[in-house]
Design a protein that fits this description.
Elements (H helix, E strand, L loop, with lengths): L3 E5 L8 H15 L3 E5 L16 E2 L3 E4 L4 E5 L14 E6 L23 E4 L2 H10 L5 E3 L18 E4 L5 H13 L7 E4 L5 H9 L3 E4 L8 H8 L3 E4 L14 E3 L5 H11 L7 H13 L2 H16 L6 E4 L8 H9 L11
Parallel strand pairs: 1-2, 1-5, 2-3, 5-6, 6-7, 7-8, 9-10, 9-11, 11-12, 12-13
Antiparallel strand pairs: 4-14
């Protein structure tokens, strides 16, 4: 059995940046000559909203070699449950706000043998996690942005776009404010929802202003992709996205001020598609968040994880645990709601 890097993934019910980033990781590791795969529970499952031919593993259980590394998203951890005792493991933390999603007792996080490495995607996450669990090795893996896919389009549209998924209630308020404003009479107002990655990229490439509606973000990939597509960005850094609002062409708005978001977006919507500010924003983001830098960080992080002790053994897919009495008990004892708005 070869030495592999295996990412445990729940089959997503809707498009999401977390799984897309994991897919990028697998692609980049394979390009670097490192055997990598995505592990889902369902046989023959394929991720539906972007084209890929990634190696896929399936089933509730998997045999790991002494040289394998199992990568587990931070959201899948349960107290007292080691998904692969004795094996090398990594917690891929894409959102530091979700670190203790299923935990009450934070003293022995995560209590695995051996202790895992932690990978984080933003400077903010690095700073927070270094103080949350200073006893765990920590690596920064910057998110890659596909500058070829997310690029300015061939035509410019007077358009304000946003993604309502994280703040659906506030999104409705913003849309109504914009539609009631005479300044938006000739402006295309576009909520981006239920689209494939290619459709989102095409829409952003023609968009004047993107409204960032993140909440409790580990990074905020839509902001980076909008900047790469040539959009001006108005919105909320929401924690981990603070580094993206250092880019030219961004305007930070105080949290939960939808009328201020609308006013700033309307003030910027007619800025020329060829304005140097848009090009500067694209250059800024693509020079800092690209496949080369991500690949270099990944290869170094995998090498560091492999330097820790580890042995062969059996792994249980982390998402299989909630189906067991242990997992159901954990879910009942932690009746939390996600860090996003929900209908009352």
């Amino acid at each position: 059995m070869s030495s592999r890097v295996i990412y445990a993934v729940k089959e997503p019910e809707a498009p999401g940046g977390g799984v897309r980033v994991i897919a990028h990781h697998v692609e980049l590791l394979l390009e670097a000559g490192i055997d990598a795969a995505i592990w889902c529970r369902t046989p023959d499952y394929r991720i539906p909203w972007f084209a890929n031919s990634l190696p896929m593993l399936s089933g509730d259980h998997l045999e790991l070699s002494a040289d394998d590394v199992l990568v587990v998203p931070e959201l899948y951890l349960l107290p007292g449950v080691d998904p692969a005792p004795g094996a090398r493991k990594v917690i891929f933390n894409q959102n530091h706000f979700l670190t203790f999603w299923s935990w009450r007792d934070t003293e022995n996080y995560p209590g695995w043998d051996p202790a895992p490495h932690v990978w984080a995607v933003s400077r903010e996450s690095m700073d927070v996690l270094a103080r949350v669990h200073p006893y765990l090795p920590l690596s920064h893996i910057p998110n890659p942005v596909d500058g070829e896919l997310f690029r300015p389009g061939d035509r410019a549209v007077l358009r304000i776009a946003w993604m309502p998924r994280r703040r659906p209630l506030e999104s409705t308020i913003i849309e109504r404010i914009l539609r009631n404003d005479p300044r938006a009479q000739d402006v295309d107002l576009l909520p981006l929802s239920g689209l494939t990655e290619e459709q989102v990229a095409e829409a952003l490439g023609e968009t004047s202003v993107f409204i960032a509606l993140g909440i409790s973000e580990g990074f905020g990939l839509p902001v980076a992709e909008a900047l790469s597509a040539g959009c001006l960005v108005v919105g909320y850094p929401a924690g981990g996205g603070v580094e993206l609002f250092e880019a030219p062409g961004t305007w930070e708005i105080p949290d939960a001020r939808p009328h201020l978001l609308a006013d700033r977006a309307l003030a910027l919507v007619d800025v020329s598609a060829h304005d140097p500010l848009r090009l500067a924003a694209r250059d800024w983001v693509t020079s800092r968040y690209n496949a080369k830098l991500t690949q270099e960080a990944l290869v170094a992080a995998v090498a560091a994880a492999r330097r820790q002790p580890g042995r062969a053994g059996a792994a249980t897919h982390p998402v299989a645990w909630p189906d067991s009495p242990h997992g159901q008990s954990a879910e009942r004892s932690h009746p939390w709601t996600p860090p996003a708005q929900a209908a009352p």
